[in-house]
Sequence to fold (687 residues):
Amino acid sequence: MDTFLQQFINGLSLGAIYALIALGYTMVYGVLRLINFAHGDVYMLGAFAGYYLANALNMDANPSVLGTIAVTMGAMAICGLIGMLIERLAYRPVRRHSRLTSLITAIGVSLLLEYGGQVVFGATPRFFPQMIRSQTYSLGGVQITNQALMIIVVAVLLMFGLQFIVHHTKIGKAMRAVSFNLPVARLMGINTDFVIAFTFALGSALAAVGGVLVALSIPRIDPLMGLMTGLKAFVAAVLGGIGNIPGAMLGGMLIGLMETWISATAYSTFRDAVAFAVLILILLLRPAGILGTSVTEKV
Amino acid sequence: MKLHRFVFLAVACVPAFIAGCERRPGTSEQSATGDILVGMYGSLTGDGASFGQSSVEGAQLGVEEINNAGGLLGGRKIRLLVEDDQSRPEEASNAVTKMITQDKVVAVLGEVASRRTLAAAPVSQKYRIPMITPASTNERVTQVGDYVFRVCFIDPFQGEVLAKFAYNDLKARKIAVLRDVSQDYSTGLTDAVQKTFTSLGGHVLDPVSYSTGDADFRAILTQVRAQKPDVIFATGYYPEAAIIVRQARELGMTMPILGGDGWVGDALKNGREALKNTFISNHYSGDNPDPVVQNFRKAYRAKFNREPDSIAALGYDAAKVLADSITRAAGTDGPTLRAAIAAADVAGVTGRLKMNASRNVDKPAVVQELQFVNGDVKYVYRTTISPN
Fold:
């Protein structure tokens, strides 16, 4: 029983990581119908931004909560800017072309960030400074670290925050309008370029939060870290229903739990394969995802 | 003017053309004077960066000492050509091919990770250019062919050392093993530990698997925890070991964790306080009062401004064995040099380096306890175990 509960907690803390990244995927898709494959790599950049900021502040020697918040904010700002830059330089020029063009551009941006990252940061894995000292809470034989707990809490908070922004603010209304019909939204006087840039900035800032928090809990970072995690977060977003914010959360948690349970069996090395088997199954059986609603394309 | 330039170019091309011709295997086209070119490949970047850096630094120190003492074969200097394989097996094989066919090195030093040496050794064998690996402990490495040598002990022995230490000194009766299935080193060491521990009468739980680059071991550790082993073995390399010990302690697992020489790497220090109660088998102990060891430490610290690890010591030893063999061979062509290395018997930093018939050396291993002191790993000597 202990073991089962512990694996459940392990699964949730892993799933929260996927959920954090899936939120950004799903939001960009919701607004632009673009699968931003570079999202996982923005998450990597967030972790590296946090790494350099934390080392500049010498956080390893002087851990503090306030400093951690400052580092996270810094990483969010940097990634938000990078997100806008990517949108401006890579996606906006091809926005009027077919959706396939944008998709291929996204894959190109992703590869650029991964291998550019290897040139700039080097391929050697780095270890993230312990900005908050690890602490283990135990409750009836089940252990959870303060860092893992933080990831779960922050992921849930961000989900609600995002839901609030999209549904209850003016910019959120504009985002939904752009998502519904871009040319008409522009005719109604919405600055669509600004709304799209904002969407990218927000999504990338979310990825940065993910990068810093994950690196705190699992301290190894390298330029390719966003590749597999990003792909699994994508699976999570599709599983929950891409474009649906609570769906991203649900999908992330499910993928995390599934992966943990597979790891706990003798087939631990198959866990990556299982995530993608799930993707294939969901696309075959319920393409709209668990919480998504399928919309018939207007012709 | 134009004609002159053309003639000059044509003349300049002739030696390049000749040099580019297919060489016969085993013959060195280096002239009998000038520098002796030795190739070294290592993981200077990537997952195993610490291995590459330490082994190359060790070899550089060895080469520098030889050159300062007047060089070899009547005053010729050794020039060490270093190639980075980025911790990738296919790059290791490319690097060795390039050094042998284009740079015409007389011998090759490297790698540390067995998987990469296994990828590159067939190239050396094919061109009959001797290779000496400083630290690849997988048994199969020197079985590639008679041109492949090593200056470290092998995993069947290392596994025996670790299993005996766990059984006799730590009084463990039930052990769990975490192995990196993407590394020949880790799977080989796992088999050896299993074999010895079972033959001693202990119980080995089914090994659990992970791959290089994994960073979340909580699921497999939780599963291990449920089976209540007395001791855990993590037979992979240092980047994963650092995270494994941390996450094990976070899950409330306080039992001893044991590893092999693959734990020796700079990033191991990220295991931090979790490194308490961990032990490894190693090639050399810096505490050894032997003047050979202490002089090496002093010279290394003076040159690189840090304490050498065992991988650096092995890199140094590999360079010294090669230099000694070149002197005895009185030449640098492949077959002659190969025969000389096969007969090597050198007093090294890591012990007596006497090649046996399998091109391995029989050396004792030390067991060290790890401590996390002042932000770095301290290797505390526990015991020495000799091969029977």
